[in-house]
User: Fold this.
Amino acid sequence: MTEIPGVLQDLLRRTKPDLAAPLPPAGDWADWGLDSLDLAELAARIEQHYRLDIPDEDWRALRDFGALRAYLEARLERDA
Amino acid sequence: MPSRRLLCAVPRGHAADLAPLFAAYAARRVEVRSWLYGGDVPEEPALGAAAADCDAVLLVGRGERAPGTVLSGPVLATASGRRIPIGWVPVVDRASLARFVSTAVRLHERAHSVPSVALLAQRHPRFLRLTDRIEAILDGGERRRTVFRWTSDALVREDLIRALASGLGSAIYVGHGRPTGWTGYYGLRARHFDGFTGEPLGALIALCCRTASRRRTRLSFAEALPLKGVCGAVFGAVSATLHTDNTRWAVRLSDAYLHGARTLADLVLAALPATARQVAPYRILGDPLCPLRAPARGLRRARAVEVYA
Assistant:
Protein backbone atom coordinates (compact mmCIF):
# COMPACT_ATOMS: atom_id res chain seq x y z
CA MET A 1 0.00 0.00 0.00
CA THR A 2 2.89 2.35 0.66
CA GLU A 3 3.56 2.68 -3.05
CA ILE A 4 0.07 3.97 -3.94
CA PRO A 5 0.85 7.70 -3.49
CA GLY A 6 3.97 7.37 -5.64
CA VAL A 7 2.12 5.48 -8.38
CA LEU A 8 -0.70 8.03 -8.32
CA GLN A 9 1.70 10.95 -8.58
CA ASP A 10 3.41 9.23 -11.52
CA LEU A 11 0.09 8.59 -13.29
CA LEU A 12 -0.93 12.19 -12.60
CA ARG A 13 2.27 13.48 -14.15
CA ARG A 14 1.65 11.33 -17.25
CA THR A 15 -1.85 12.73 -17.45
CA LYS A 16 -0.91 16.33 -16.80
CA PRO A 17 2.83 16.77 -17.43
CA ASP A 18 2.74 20.45 -16.43
CA LEU A 19 1.60 19.74 -12.85
CA ALA A 20 4.12 21.66 -10.77
CA ALA A 21 4.53 19.54 -7.67
CA PRO A 22 3.13 16.42 -5.98
CA LEU A 23 -0.48 17.02 -5.07
CA PRO A 24 -1.34 17.42 -1.39
CA PRO A 25 -4.07 15.16 0.00
CA ALA A 26 -6.66 17.94 0.21
CA GLY A 27 -7.94 20.45 -2.34
CA ASP A 28 -10.42 19.92 -5.12
CA TRP A 29 -9.08 18.58 -8.43
CA ALA A 30 -10.09 21.81 -10.14
CA ASP A 31 -7.84 23.76 -7.77
CA TRP A 32 -4.90 21.93 -9.35
CA GLY A 33 -6.08 22.60 -12.89
CA LEU A 34 -7.46 19.12 -13.52
CA ASP A 35 -10.65 19.13 -15.59
CA SER A 36 -13.09 16.34 -16.46
CA LEU A 37 -11.01 15.07 -19.40
CA ASP A 38 -7.85 14.96 -17.28
CA LEU A 39 -9.76 13.04 -14.62
CA ALA A 40 -11.18 10.55 -17.14
CA GLU A 41 -7.64 9.98 -18.41
CA LEU A 42 -6.35 9.57 -14.87
CA ALA A 43 -9.12 7.03 -14.19
CA ALA A 44 -8.11 5.09 -17.32
CA ARG A 45 -4.48 5.03 -16.25
CA ILE A 46 -5.31 3.92 -12.70
CA GLU A 47 -7.65 1.18 -13.97
CA GLN A 48 -5.02 -0.07 -16.40
CA HIS A 49 -2.21 0.04 -13.83
CA TYR A 50 -4.13 -1.77 -11.10
CA ARG A 51 -6.33 -3.84 -13.48
CA LEU A 52 -9.55 -2.80 -11.78
CA ASP A 53 -12.78 -1.03 -12.67
CA ILE A 54 -13.70 2.26 -11.06
CA PRO A 55 -17.42 2.84 -11.69
CA ASP A 56 -18.37 6.40 -12.65
CA GLU A 57 -20.48 6.81 -9.52
CA ASP A 58 -17.45 5.94 -7.33
CA TRP A 59 -15.18 8.19 -9.37
CA ARG A 60 -17.48 11.19 -9.07
CA ALA A 61 -17.31 10.90 -5.27
CA LEU A 62 -13.50 11.11 -5.23
CA ARG A 63 -13.05 14.86 -4.93
CA ASP A 64 -9.34 15.04 -4.11
CA PHE A 65 -6.07 13.15 -4.00
CA GLY A 66 -6.54 11.98 -0.40
CA ALA A 67 -9.97 10.51 -1.15
CA LEU A 68 -8.60 8.75 -4.23
CA ARG A 69 -5.73 7.27 -2.25
CA ALA A 70 -8.06 6.03 0.51
CA TYR A 71 -10.44 4.55 -2.08
CA LEU A 72 -7.65 2.69 -3.84
CA GLU A 73 -6.22 1.35 -0.60
CA ALA A 74 -9.65 0.00 0.35
CA ARG A 75 -10.28 -1.48 -3.12
CA LEU A 76 -6.90 -3.16 -3.37
CA GLU A 77 -7.21 -4.60 0.13
CA ARG A 78 -10.71 -5.88 -0.65
CA ASP A 79 -9.66 -7.41 -3.98
CA ALA A 80 -6.45 -8.96 -2.60
CA MET B 1 8.22 -20.91 -37.38
CA PRO B 2 4.98 -18.98 -37.76
CA SER B 3 4.91 -15.56 -36.13
CA ARG B 4 1.23 -15.95 -35.28
CA ARG B 5 -1.57 -18.48 -35.49
CA LEU B 6 -5.07 -17.64 -36.63
CA LEU B 7 -8.14 -19.81 -36.39
CA CYS B 8 -10.45 -19.13 -39.30
CA ALA B 9 -13.94 -20.61 -38.98
CA VAL B 10 -15.70 -20.43 -42.32
CA PRO B 11 -18.78 -22.10 -43.82
CA ARG B 12 -17.80 -25.05 -45.99
CA GLY B 13 -19.27 -23.47 -49.08
CA HIS B 14 -17.08 -20.37 -48.75
CA ALA B 15 -13.70 -21.95 -48.05
CA ALA B 16 -12.46 -21.28 -51.58
CA ASP B 17 -13.46 -17.60 -51.29
CA LEU B 18 -11.03 -17.19 -48.39
CA ALA B 19 -8.10 -18.94 -50.12
CA PRO B 20 -6.39 -15.70 -51.32
CA LEU B 21 -6.45 -14.33 -47.77
CA PHE B 22 -4.97 -17.55 -46.40
CA ALA B 23 -2.13 -17.22 -48.93
CA ALA B 24 -1.55 -13.60 -47.87
CA TYR B 25 -1.44 -14.65 -44.22
CA ALA B 26 1.06 -17.39 -45.05
CA ALA B 27 3.30 -14.84 -46.77
CA ARG B 28 3.24 -12.86 -43.50
CA ARG B 29 4.13 -16.01 -41.55
CA VAL B 30 0.66 -16.32 -40.08
CA GLU B 31 -0.31 -19.99 -39.76
CA VAL B 32 -3.99 -20.46 -40.50
CA ARG B 33 -6.03 -23.23 -38.91
CA SER B 34 -9.20 -23.53 -40.93
CA TRP B 35 -12.40 -24.83 -39.44
CA LEU B 36 -14.82 -25.56 -42.24
CA TYR B 37 -18.20 -25.87 -40.66
CA GLY B 38 -21.68 -26.79 -41.80
CA GLY B 39 -24.89 -25.47 -40.26
CA ASP B 40 -25.00 -22.49 -37.94
CA VAL B 41 -22.09 -20.35 -36.81
CA PRO B 42 -20.02 -22.10 -34.10
CA GLU B 43 -20.59 -20.91 -30.54
CA GLU B 44 -17.88 -19.11 -28.59
CA PRO B 45 -16.96 -21.97 -26.21
CA ALA B 46 -16.29 -24.26 -29.19
CA LEU B 47 -14.27 -21.53 -30.91
CA GLY B 48 -12.32 -20.94 -27.71
CA ALA B 49 -11.49 -24.63 -27.45
CA ALA B 50 -10.41 -24.83 -31.08
CA ALA B 51 -8.28 -21.68 -30.76
CA ALA B 52 -6.34 -22.93 -27.73
CA ASP B 53 -2.92 -22.14 -29.24
CA CYS B 54 -4.00 -19.35 -31.59
CA ASP B 55 -3.45 -15.59 -31.38
CA ALA B 56 -6.69 -14.52 -33.02
CA VAL B 57 -9.88 -15.82 -34.64
CA LEU B 58 -11.58 -14.81 -37.86
CA LEU B 59 -15.20 -15.93 -37.88
CA VAL B 60 -17.07 -15.90 -41.17
CA GLY B 61 -20.76 -16.71 -41.15
CA ARG B 62 -24.17 -16.17 -42.63
CA GLY B 63 -25.19 -12.56 -42.95
CA GLU B 64 -28.45 -12.93 -41.06
CA ARG B 65 -26.49 -13.17 -37.81
CA ALA B 66 -25.82 -9.83 -36.10
CA PRO B 67 -22.50 -8.96 -34.43
CA GLY B 68 -24.28 -8.44 -31.11
CA THR B 69 -25.63 -11.98 -31.02
CA VAL B 70 -22.89 -13.94 -32.75
CA LEU B 71 -20.15 -12.68 -30.40
CA SER B 72 -20.12 -11.40 -26.83
CA GLY B 73 -17.17 -9.02 -27.26
CA PRO B 74 -14.02 -8.22 -29.24
CA VAL B 75 -12.10 -11.01 -27.50
CA LEU B 76 -12.72 -14.68 -26.94
CA ALA B 77 -11.63 -16.78 -23.96
CA THR B 78 -9.64 -19.85 -24.92
CA ALA B 79 -9.93 -23.08 -22.94
CA SER B 80 -7.06 -21.91 -20.71
CA GLY B 81 -8.73 -18.55 -20.06
CA ARG B 82 -6.40 -16.59 -22.33
CA ARG B 83 -8.16 -13.79 -24.20
CA ILE B 84 -7.63 -13.46 -27.94
CA PRO B 85 -9.20 -11.04 -30.42
CA ILE B 86 -11.97 -12.30 -32.68
CA GLY B 87 -13.27 -10.67 -35.85
CA TRP B 88 -16.67 -11.24 -37.47
CA VAL B 89 -17.34 -11.17 -41.20
CA PRO B 90 -20.97 -11.64 -42.31
CA VAL B 91 -21.51 -13.30 -45.66
CA VAL B 92 -24.11 -11.09 -47.31
CA ASP B 93 -23.25 -12.12 -50.84
CA ARG B 94 -20.23 -13.50 -52.68
CA ALA B 95 -19.29 -10.14 -54.21
CA SER B 96 -18.95 -8.33 -50.88
CA LEU B 97 -17.06 -11.26 -49.33
CA ALA B 98 -14.67 -11.16 -52.29
CA ARG B 99 -14.27 -7.41 -51.78
CA PHE B 100 -13.41 -7.94 -48.10
CA VAL B 101 -10.92 -10.68 -49.00
CA SER B 102 -9.21 -8.63 -51.71
CA THR B 103 -9.00 -5.60 -49.36
CA ALA B 104 -7.51 -7.68 -46.55
CA VAL B 105 -5.04 -9.26 -48.99
CA ARG B 106 -4.05 -5.81 -50.25
CA LEU B 107 -3.45 -4.62 -46.69
CA HIS B 108 -1.28 -7.61 -45.84
CA GLU B 109 0.67 -7.42 -49.07
CA ARG B 110 1.51 -3.74 -48.96
CA ALA B 111 4.63 -2.47 -47.20
CA HIS B 112 4.19 -1.96 -43.47
CA SER B 113 6.70 0.79 -42.94
CA VAL B 114 4.88 3.76 -41.47
CA PRO B 115 2.80 3.78 -38.29
CA SER B 116 0.10 6.33 -38.96
CA VAL B 117 -3.21 7.39 -37.42
CA ALA B 118 -5.95 9.70 -38.63
CA LEU B 119 -7.94 11.39 -35.88
CA LEU B 120 -11.62 11.84 -36.77
CA ALA B 121 -14.23 13.56 -34.63
CA GLN B 122 -17.63 15.10 -34.62
CA ARG B 123 -17.59 18.91 -34.50
CA HIS B 124 -18.38 19.31 -30.82
CA PRO B 125 -16.14 20.78 -28.08
CA ARG B 126 -16.23 17.58 -26.03
CA PHE B 127 -15.01 15.40 -28.91
CA LEU B 128 -12.56 17.93 -30.28
CA ARG B 129 -10.96 18.22 -26.84
CA LEU B 130 -10.65 14.45 -26.61
CA THR B 131 -9.02 14.50 -30.03
CA ASP B 132 -6.58 17.14 -28.77
CA ARG B 133 -5.66 14.83 -25.94
CA ILE B 134 -5.23 11.75 -28.16
CA GLU B 135 -3.03 13.85 -30.43
CA ALA B 136 -0.93 15.01 -27.47
CA ILE B 137 -0.45 11.44 -26.20
CA LEU B 138 0.48 10.14 -29.66
CA ASP B 139 2.92 12.99 -30.09
CA GLY B 140 4.82 11.99 -26.95
CA GLY B 141 7.06 9.08 -26.12
CA GLU B 142 9.88 7.59 -28.12
CA ARG B 143 7.75 5.82 -30.71
CA ARG B 144 5.89 8.72 -32.22
CA ARG B 145 3.11 8.09 -34.71
CA THR B 146 2.45 10.10 -37.81
CA VAL B 147 -0.83 11.72 -36.92
CA PHE B 148 -3.34 13.42 -39.22
CA ARG B 149 -6.14 15.51 -37.80
CA TRP B 150 -9.17 15.09 -40.02
CA THR B 151 -11.88 16.19 -37.61
CA SER B 152 -15.25 17.47 -38.76
CA ASP B 153 -14.21 21.11 -38.26
CA ALA B 154 -11.32 20.62 -40.71
CA LEU B 155 -12.88 18.49 -43.44
CA VAL B 156 -16.27 18.07 -45.04
CA ARG B 157 -17.70 14.62 -45.64
CA GLU B 158 -16.65 14.26 -49.27
CA ASP B 159 -13.09 15.31 -48.43
CA LEU B 160 -12.98 12.84 -45.55
CA ILE B 161 -13.99 9.98 -47.83
CA ARG B 162 -11.22 10.95 -50.26
CA ALA B 163 -8.77 11.31 -47.34
CA LEU B 164 -9.61 7.84 -46.03
CA ALA B 165 -8.61 6.46 -49.43
CA SER B 166 -5.01 7.62 -48.83
CA GLY B 167 -4.13 4.23 -47.40
CA LEU B 168 -3.19 5.03 -43.80
CA GLY B 169 -2.73 2.35 -41.17
CA SER B 170 -5.62 3.33 -38.93
CA ALA B 171 -8.11 5.98 -37.84
CA ILE B 172 -9.92 6.74 -34.59
CA TYR B 173 -13.35 8.40 -34.56
CA VAL B 174 -14.89 10.02 -31.48
CA GLY B 175 -18.39 11.42 -31.56
CA HIS B 176 -21.94 10.20 -31.70
CA GLY B 177 -22.73 7.06 -33.64
CA ARG B 178 -25.77 5.14 -34.87
CA PRO B 179 -26.28 1.73 -36.49
CA THR B 180 -26.34 3.50 -39.86
CA GLY B 181 -23.23 5.63 -39.33
CA TRP B 182 -21.79 8.66 -37.61
CA THR B 183 -23.38 11.94 -36.62
CA GLY B 184 -20.13 13.73 -37.41
CA TYR B 185 -19.36 15.04 -40.90
CA TYR B 186 -23.04 16.01 -41.26
CA GLY B 187 -24.00 12.34 -41.19
CA LEU B 188 -21.64 9.74 -42.59
CA ARG B 189 -23.35 6.60 -43.86
CA ALA B 190 -22.11 3.40 -45.49
CA ARG B 191 -23.77 4.40 -48.76
CA HIS B 192 -21.41 7.38 -48.98
CA PHE B 193 -18.66 4.82 -49.60
CA ASP B 194 -20.44 3.19 -52.55
CA GLY B 195 -17.94 2.81 -55.35
CA PHE B 196 -15.05 3.51 -52.95
CA THR B 197 -11.77 3.46 -54.81
CA GLY B 198 -8.27 4.18 -53.68
CA GLU B 199 -6.02 2.63 -51.11
CA PRO B 200 -7.90 1.09 -48.17
CA LEU B 201 -7.43 2.14 -44.57
CA GLY B 202 -6.08 -0.48 -42.16
CA ALA B 203 -8.29 -0.43 -39.07
CA LEU B 204 -11.02 2.02 -38.17
CA ILE B 205 -11.67 2.46 -34.45
CA ALA B 206 -15.11 3.95 -33.82
CA LEU B 207 -15.35 5.03 -30.18
CA CYS B 208 -19.06 5.81 -30.18
CA CYS B 209 -22.46 4.18 -29.75
CA ARG B 210 -24.03 1.48 -31.88
CA THR B 211 -22.13 1.55 -35.20
CA ALA B 212 -22.04 -2.27 -35.12
CA SER B 213 -25.71 -2.62 -34.16
CA ARG B 214 -28.26 -4.04 -36.60
CA ARG B 215 -31.14 -2.10 -35.06
CA ARG B 216 -33.39 -0.90 -37.88
CA THR B 217 -30.73 -1.57 -40.48
CA ARG B 218 -29.96 -4.63 -42.56
CA LEU B 219 -26.22 -4.33 -42.14
CA SER B 220 -24.51 -2.10 -39.59
CA PHE B 221 -22.14 0.69 -40.61
CA ALA B 222 -19.22 -1.12 -38.95
CA GLU B 223 -19.91 -4.34 -40.88
CA ALA B 224 -20.50 -2.57 -44.17
CA LEU B 225 -17.17 -0.75 -44.38
CA PRO B 226 -14.89 -3.83 -44.59
CA LEU B 227 -17.35 -5.38 -47.06
CA LYS B 228 -17.13 -2.26 -49.22
CA GLY B 229 -13.34 -2.41 -49.25
CA VAL B 230 -12.94 0.81 -47.24
CA CYS B 231 -10.81 -0.78 -44.52
CA GLY B 232 -9.60 -4.14 -43.25
CA ALA B 233 -11.53 -4.01 -40.00
CA VAL B 234 -13.68 -1.81 -37.79
CA PHE B 235 -13.72 -1.75 -33.99
CA GLY B 236 -17.25 -0.63 -33.17
CA ALA B 237 -20.01 -0.91 -30.59
CA VAL B 238 -23.23 -2.93 -30.79
CA SER B 239 -24.94 -0.90 -28.06
CA ALA B 240 -24.84 2.45 -26.31
CA THR B 241 -21.51 3.46 -24.80
CA LEU B 242 -20.55 6.03 -22.18
CA HIS B 243 -18.38 9.00 -23.11
CA THR B 244 -16.34 8.40 -19.95
CA ASP B 245 -15.68 4.80 -21.02
CA ASN B 246 -14.78 5.88 -24.55
CA THR B 247 -12.40 8.47 -23.13
CA ARG B 248 -10.72 5.69 -21.18
CA TRP B 249 -10.57 3.53 -24.32
CA ALA B 250 -9.01 6.46 -26.19
CA VAL B 251 -6.28 6.87 -23.59
CA ARG B 252 -5.49 3.15 -23.50
CA LEU B 253 -5.51 2.84 -27.30
CA SER B 254 -3.19 5.84 -27.61
CA ASP B 255 -0.79 4.24 -25.13
CA ALA B 256 -1.03 0.95 -27.04
CA TYR B 257 -0.04 2.74 -30.26
CA LEU B 258 2.95 4.19 -28.46
CA HIS B 259 3.96 0.76 -27.21
CA GLY B 260 4.28 -0.42 -30.81
CA ALA B 261 1.04 -2.27 -31.65
CA ARG B 262 1.42 -3.56 -35.21
CA THR B 263 -2.02 -5.09 -35.79
CA LEU B 264 -5.55 -4.40 -34.62
CA ALA B 265 -5.28 -7.51 -32.44
CA ASP B 266 -2.17 -6.08 -30.71
CA LEU B 267 -3.94 -2.77 -30.20
CA VAL B 268 -7.13 -4.23 -28.74
CA LEU B 269 -5.29 -6.63 -26.44
CA ALA B 270 -2.97 -3.92 -25.12
CA ALA B 271 -5.87 -1.52 -24.54
CA LEU B 272 -8.25 -4.10 -23.08
CA PRO B 273 -9.64 -2.88 -19.75
CA ALA B 274 -10.01 -5.09 -16.70
CA THR B 275 -13.73 -4.57 -16.60
CA ALA B 276 -16.33 -6.36 -18.70
CA ARG B 277 -18.53 -3.24 -18.67
CA GLN B 278 -16.18 -1.31 -20.95
CA VAL B 279 -15.42 -4.31 -23.19
CA ALA B 280 -18.90 -5.73 -23.73
CA PRO B 281 -20.27 -3.14 -26.21
CA TYR B 282 -17.43 -3.56 -28.67
CA ARG B 283 -16.82 -6.00 -31.53
CA ILE B 284 -14.20 -6.41 -34.25
CA LEU B 285 -15.75 -6.48 -37.70
CA GLY B 286 -13.30 -7.82 -40.26
CA ASP B 287 -9.71 -9.03 -40.06
CA PRO B 288 -8.39 -9.02 -36.47
CA LEU B 289 -4.81 -9.21 -37.75
CA CYS B 290 -5.29 -6.15 -39.91
CA PRO B 291 -1.95 -4.29 -40.04
CA LEU B 292 -1.77 -0.76 -38.60
CA ARG B 293 1.19 0.32 -40.66
CA ALA B 294 1.08 1.68 -44.16
CA PRO B 295 3.44 2.27 -47.05
CA ALA B 296 5.22 5.61 -47.37
CA ARG B 297 3.13 6.53 -50.41
CA GLY B 298 0.00 6.38 -48.22
CA LEU B 299 1.58 8.98 -46.00
CA ARG B 300 2.43 11.17 -48.98
CA ARG B 301 -1.18 11.03 -50.16
CA ALA B 302 -2.42 11.82 -46.64
CA ARG B 303 -0.11 14.83 -46.41
CA ALA B 304 -1.62 16.16 -49.62
CA VAL B 305 -5.13 16.21 -48.12
CA GLU B 306 -6.25 19.80 -47.71
CA VAL B 307 -7.79 20.72 -44.38
CA TYR B 308 -9.28 23.95 -43.07
CA ALA B 309 -6.73 25.07 -40.51
